[in-house]
Amino acid sequence: AAERSGPGTSQQYRPALGNAAVRRARLRDDLPYAVARGELAVLFQPIVSLEEQRVTGVEALLRWRHPELGDVPPAEFVPIAERAGVIGELQRWALERAAEAAVALPSTNGVPLRLGVNISASHVAARTLVGDVAAVLRSTGLAPERLVLEITEATVLADGEYVAVDFEALRLMGVHVALDDFGTGHFSLAHLTRLPIDILKLDESFVTRVDRDPKTRALCESVVTIGRTLGLDVVAEGVETPAQLGALRTLGCGFAQGFLLARPMRQEELGALLADGAGVLWPGLVGTR
Ligand code: C2E
Ligand code: MG
Ligand code: MG
Ligand code: MG
Predict the structure, then answer these.
(1) Which of 243, 262, 259 is nearest to 251 (CA)?
(2) Whether ipTM exceeds 0.85
(3) DSSP characters for 206-218?
(4) Residues with CB under 5 A from ligand 4 (ion)
(5) Does residue 264's CB lie within 6 angstroms of at least one atom of ligand 1?
(6) Residue 268 burial (C-beta neighbours within 10 Å; 0-12, 13-18, 19+)
(7) C-alpha distances in Å from residue 184, one per residue of 98, 145, 153, 244
(8) pLDDT 10s digit of each residue in the chain, 289 long?
(9) Among the residues of the chain, which ranges form H helices?
């Protein structure tokens, strides 16, 4: 329909804008009860070692199945939880649920899987992270070395001594730290030498073009080199095609994660896959060498 200017025009837009605002308000109001109502779930996406050709870790990914609105992606509800001040509770629940699951998982080749958990900047800013992690390690018995806290560049760049102090405390506990979505933020290389980071997660925006664009390939190669120089593992995120995986292998990237290898799945599915012996020669890797 043709748009007209003048009186009444803005009213025509109100319903659409209103719907988004109404949805946000609804999510914000319902979020505090989502845990108690059993609407939240943690899925696990395998992370594969390209050298060993087996699963060496998983990333925990939060899901919210709203009874009326359906599946709400974390990219939508995590920011709402942050603004509503309930991210701490959500995060503690996810951390505990994921740790419980990890303790129950079979190990592959006798090596227990690593567990990556995403941590939002506001949880770090609230200064409860160190205590929350310690409590979960205690209550679940998860070995600290198995836990990987995935933080983004935004968390690292947040002003305040506390970030370095808290992450140093976490490292002293034995917990590992991954820099998530690496390459997308305003990151200075100097941060890599100052913060206790163990893993770089190369963002999928690079991975999608690693096999087709020479500049992207060169950037990915640099990240792999930085990892090797500083002794950090590099995990490629969002690997969807054999060509991408092949390119990453050629560059010497150590680990990969993505729909090609496995989708995020429930704890039971993951347990069944691992028990099946798929921990060695992961199916998604077959035929990609
Ligand atoms: P992320 O940490 O970068 O997680 C990876 C995202 O990529 C996940 O989306 C995953 O499902 C998706 N993914 C995995 N393989 C592929 C692939 O091959 N292709 C494509 N296109 N995507 C792939 P998801 O689960 O929707 O999570 C989105 C973001 O939400 C996460 O990004 C993370 O930043 C955040 N998030 C998820 N769970 C939590 C949580 O428990 N706490 C916090 N604070 N944030 C979370
Ligand atoms: Mg992540
Ligand atoms: Mg990521
Ligand atoms: Mg990402």
Answers:
(1) 243
(2) yes
(3) HHTTTTT-HHHHH
(4) 181, 203
(5) yes
(6) exposed
(7) 26, 27, 8, 19
(8) 344 444 444 444 445 557 889 999 999 999 999 999 999 999 999 999 999 888 999 999 999 999 999 999 999 999 999 999 999 999 999 999 999 999 999 877 778 999 999 999 999 988 999 999 999 999 999 999 999 999 988 888 776 788 889 999 999 999 999 999 998 877 777 778 777 899 999 999 999 999 999 999 999 999 999 999 999 999 999 999 999 999 999 999 999 999 999 999 999 999 988 887 655 556 666 544 4
(9) 9-34, 74-84, 87-104, 121-125, 129-140, 153-157, 162-173, 190-194, 204-207, 214-230, 242-251, 267-273
User: What is the pTM (predicted TM-score) of this model?
Assistant: 0.91
Question: Would you state the structure tokens that stand for residue 124, as one six-digit string?
Answer: 């770090």
Residue with CA closest to ligand 1 atom 20: 238
Q: In this structure, how many other beta carbons lie within 10 angstroms of the beta carbon of residue 259?
A: 13
- C-beta neighbour count of 265 within 10 angstroms: 17
Cα angle 243-244-246, degrees, rounded to a multiple of 5? 65
Query: What is the distance in A from the centroid of ligand 1 to the CA of 13?
Result: 32
- Nearest ligand 1 atom to alpha carbon 150: 2
Residue having the nearest C-alpha atom to atom 15 of ligand 1: 258
Establish whether residue 13 lines the binding site of ligand 1, counting it when its CB lies within 6 angstroms of any ligand atom. Answer: no
Answer whether 180 contacts ligand 1 (Cβ < 6 A).
yes
| Structure token digits, residue 71 | 């599946």
Q: Which ligand is nearest to the CA of 60?
A: 1
Q: Distance between CA atoms of 115 and 98, rounded to whole angstroms?
A: 8
Please tell me the distance from the alpha carbon of residue 121 to that of residue 3, in angstroms, as a whole number.
Answer: 42
